[in-house]
Amino acid sequence: MSSLEEELTCSVCRDVFSQALPLPCGHSFCPACVRDSWGHREAGVRGRFTCEQCQEEHGVVACDCCPRVEDEGQEGSAAAVKTCLRCEVSLCAMHLQPHLERAAFKTHLLVEPLGDLSHRRCPAHQEMYRYYCADERLYVCSDCLLDGGHAQHRVKGLKMVEEDLKVILQSLLQKAGEKLNEGERILQENQITDRTMTDLSLADDIQVERMGAVLQHQVESLVKDLRESARRERQKAIEHLQNNCSRLREDLSQTQDIHYYLASLLEETDPFLLIWAFQSDDSRLLADLNGPLFTPEPFSLDMKFIVKDIESKYREFITEMLRCLTKLKRDLMTSPLTLDTNSSHPLLSICDGLQSVMRVKHRLPCADHPDRFDHWAQVLTTQAFSSGTHYWELEAEGFWDIALSYRSIGRKGKEGTAFGNNKVSWSLTQQHDRKLAAWHNCKKTRISKRMSGNRVGVALDYGAGTITFSEVGSSSTLSHLHTFTASFSQPVCLGFGLYKAELHSRVTIARM
Questions:
Q1: Which residues form the RING-type domain (predicted)?
Q2: Residues 6+ apart with CB under 8 A from 257
Q3: pLDDT digits (tens, 9 = 90+) for 64-75
Q4: How many Å apart are CA 411 and CA 446, to the nearest integer?
C-alpha cells in the first residue's frame, strides 16, 4: 500500500491522484502539474521539458557520429540537434541530414538531444521503447510484444501515436482558439456594456439632478403662489375695511360740521341773522341729523377662496410633479439602441448613426450574411435584453411593424420569418390605411383605436413577461394600445418591418 501511495503521489505538489501519467523516466505527475508545467511557457518559444523529480540538466549533447578529438587546443565533436531512438544515437545537423532526406529513415523517431537513453529503455529487456499500449497506458518494447503480454491490447508505434495525438491536439487547439475568441468577444462586449453603464449612470445622475431642480422650482413656485393668493385675499379685506372707515369718517366729519354750525348759531346775538341762517338750512339740517350714521356690517376674512386657490395650485403642482416623475421613469428605463446592419434587408436604408431606418424602392448593395433577412423588409437592433424593465419611444410613419423578437427568428425565405407570424416575435402593425393590429404566432388581434400621431411607446418587463405598446401624446401622456403576455426563454431585441416605399415608411429611435 505504501508503494502504491508513493506511485500515485505527484512528485511536484505531493497530492495523491487517481491515475498515474508516467514519464519515460518512471516519475508521474498529476494532470494539474502537467498542464502547469507546459502552460507557463511563452507562446512560440520551444523549450525542453525536464522532469521535475529528476531535475536532469542535459547540457550539450555531443554528436555520436563525429570523431572525438582528445587533443588540447582542438575543437571536440559537434553538438547534437536530435537523438534517433531507433538508431540510439545523437546527431549533429550534418549527420542528421540522411534521416531527414532518405526514405529508409522515415519511420525513425527523432527527439530532442538526449545524453542518457536509459530512461527510454525497457528495464526488463533493455530494448528501446518503440510502442505504446493504450489499454495499460504503458510504453513497451519489441520483446514486450513478443512475450505476448499485450496480445489483445491496442498497441501502436510511438510515431503513429504521436501523429494521432497531434490530430486530436490540433482539433482541441482550434476549439481552444475559438473559445478564446468567443471569450475576447464577450469580454469586449462587457467592457462596452461597462462603459455604456458608466455613461448611463452619469446621464441618470444628471437626469435626477435636473428633476430635483425642476421639483425645487415647482415647490418654490407653489409656495410663492400660495403666499400671493393669501396676500391678495388679505389685501381685499384690508381695502374693504379701509373703505368702510373712509365712509364712516365722512359721516363723522359731516356731523362734526353740523355740530359746530349749531353751536355757532346758539352764540349768535342778532335775531335777524339767527332766523335767516336757521330757516335757510333747516330742512337739510334736520335730514342730515335724522339720517343714521354709516355702520359697517361685521366683517371676517373668508378663507374659502384662499383654500380653493390653494387646492387648485396644489393640484397643478402634483400634476407637474407626476409628469416629471413619469418622464424620469421613462428616461431611466430607456436603454440605448442601434440597428444591426448585418440583419437589414437590402430594401432598407439605415441612417442617423444607426438610429433610423427607411424603406427604399430599389435594393441596396449588401454583402451576403447569415443574419440578413432576405424576403421581408425587416431589421433587428444590435442590443438584446434578458432581464429588467425597459422602455423606448419610436417615431413611426407609413406602413410599419414594430416588434420584440428572439434572435433565433428565421432570416431566410418567406414562411415563418415575418414579425408576429411565428412563436418567437410579438408585433404591432400599422397598415396603409392606419388601421392597427397586434400579431403573434400568426394570430391577428384587431385594435379599434387609431393613432392620432406618429410616436409609439414600447415597454418591456422581461421578468413579468409583458410587452406593452402605447401611443405617446403631445404632452408625453401614454394611451394604451395593446399588451402581450409571454414567458420569455431567450433574450429579446426590437425589430422593425417597413412596407410600401411610396408611403415613406420609416422608423426612428427617438431620443428621450
A1: 10-55
A2: none
A3: 898 876 654 455
A4: 26
